[in-house]
Amino acid sequence: MSTNGTEKKWDRRSADTAERMAAAARFIGPGKQFKPEDTVALLEAVIRPGDRVNIEGNNQKQADFLAESLNKVDKSKIHDLHMVQSAVPLPVHLDLFESGIAKKLDFAFGGPQAGRVAEFIRDGKMELGAIHTYLELFSRYFLDLTPKVSLICAYKADKKGNLYTGFNTEDTPTIVEATKFSQGIVIAQVNEIVDELPRVDIPADWIDAVVQSPKPFFIEPLFTRDPALITDSQILLAMLCLKGIYGEYEVKRLNHGIGFLTSAIELMLPTYGAELGLKGKICTHMALNPHPTMIPAIEDGWVQQIHCFGGELGMEKFVAARPDVFFVGPDGSLRSNRAYSQAAGQYACDMFIGGTLQIDKYGNSSTATANRVAGFGGAPNMGSDAHGRRHSTDAWLKCGAEQPTLDRTLGNMPRGKKLVVQGVETFGEGRAPVFVEELDAWKLAKNANLPLPPVMIYADDLTHIVTEEGIAYLNRAPDIEARMAAIRAVAGYTEIGLKADPAETKRLREQRIVMTPEDLGVDRKRADRSMLAARSIQDLVTWSGGLYNPPARFRNW
């Protein structure tokens, strides 16, 4: 009873869902199935204006048919939706805002739509909640951004409505659990409906309706990099990383971001890494999608275990044939999970290495600029020093021990520190300088009316910067002035780099706070494609024994 004597209702959410599902019941048949031609009408029955809605927009697999159908609803019936989804990589995701069906967005990754997201924010077509990291957004699904309706995708459903998410599970379990256990509605598109599933990934009683879409869902081979496109400059950076960071700290547990630098490192483990005597000392446990460029290192016995955020097109057979390395189910296919891998990257890894669009004079970095809101994905999780960590490893302890006592403002308690590395060429795409006085994120914050500039990795988390000029060991700098000087020393001919004082740089090199290729014994002349264990996609197929089946766009034979 309530204080005024009336009966308090505790099932309003489930009653609301029951009312919506009753309106949709005429479209749903046995096995919770409905026809593709009824999709728009079903969405109009279960979604209300202002609802919080999730469309499964992952890094890779997309609930594209359901997204296209949502764009076709009657705007007088459904409008001003609050979209909460990991990624918005498809044009249809933003078309919702163009038409007024959606109003507000909370997301993590913009990808190909980065420019359009920035435009919509600037023009007032989109209200931005926040640019999250994946784990941050997932956490809010279970707290204050819980979806009322989620539109997801899976490879297969059976006649009861159980789902098989297979090789690319990604975000599906997190989205479904947050929605269904808060009495929300979950609608799934699948590629096919079968009598029996290889395994049950999502049980039928967590699903409200299933449609076999007219065509298979779109999936992006996001983590495939053609070795033929790796440059000599990227190979030089990879040599510096292997000699000056991987070997220096003997990092065994780590995460690689997307990019040609990390692809070069992966392809140089069996060559330059072996030459340095690092086999068994580095890269034994990784939180990583099944990058094709990892094939030579796996085949050469470098890697003991990999947990994957998602899958990668063409790698299905290779992964299935290597269950000692990957998390493979009894059905013989990968079980990926973005939330678990994000947690592993944040707490179980000793190092993150990735790239960025801009780094300021203090070491803050961001991929959100005034004209491109690419989002952050998992980088802020991977690239942060998790203060909740309590287990110790040699690399973590060594990096922490190098942190000067001056930085310990709360006494003399020793701590480890995660290695957070940004590997960049000093000038990026279109010859835009990577090192800048002030991040464009400040302008974006003003345009989007954000309380803070959207920073991907904060300066106090960043421990190393690698450029063609050398490595800045920021974790060894005794104060902010030395950190800034170290950044200037590796910033090349950018506005920041031109302010470097040669005498100061010389002192930093003597203190091993800055190390040039020459200081590290890295021969610049050797930085060419002969360093790569595979120099083409076809070489990767050969390394895999024919198990790797690259997507058509990567085949040139």
CATH fold-type name of the largest domain: Glutaconate Coenzyme A-transferase
What value does the average pLDDT take?
94
CATH uppermost class of the largest domain: Alpha Beta
Oligomer: single chain
Largest sheet: 8 strands, mixed
The CA-CA distance between the termini, in Å, is 74 Å
Number of strands: 19
- In the predicted model, the low-confidence regions spanning at least 5 consecutive residues are none
Tell me the count of domains.
Answer: 2
| Portion in helices | 25-40%
Give the helix/strand class: alpha/beta
Outline: globular
Q: Which radius of gyration do the C-alpha atoms yield?
A: 25 Å
- Proportion in β-strands: 5-15%
Number of helical elements: 19
CATH architecture designation of the largest domain:
3-Layer(aba) Sandwich
CATH level 4 superfamily of the largest domain: Glutaconate Coenzyme A-transferase
Sequence-ordered SSE layout with sheet pairings:
Elements: H1 12-24, H2 39-46, E1 52-55, H3 64-70, E2 81-84, H4 91-99, E3 102-107, H5 114-123, E4 127-131, H6 134-141, E5 149-158, E6 163-164, H7 172-180, E7 185-194, E8 209-212, H8 232-249, E9 253-256, H9 260-275, E10 285-287, H10 295-299, E11 305-307, H11 316-320, H12 338-348, E12 351-354, E13 358-360, E14 365-366, H13 379-382, H14 394-401, E15 419-423, E16 435-436, H15 441-447, E17 464-467, E18 470-473, H16 480-489, H17 502-510, E19 514-515, H18 517-520, H19 537-543
Parallel strand pairs: 1-2, 1-5, 2-3, 3-4, 5-7, 7-8, 9-10, 9-12, 10-11, 12-15, 13-16, 15-17
Antiparallel strand pairs: 5-6, 13-14, 17-18, 18-19
Helix pairs in contact: 1-2, 8-9, 16-17
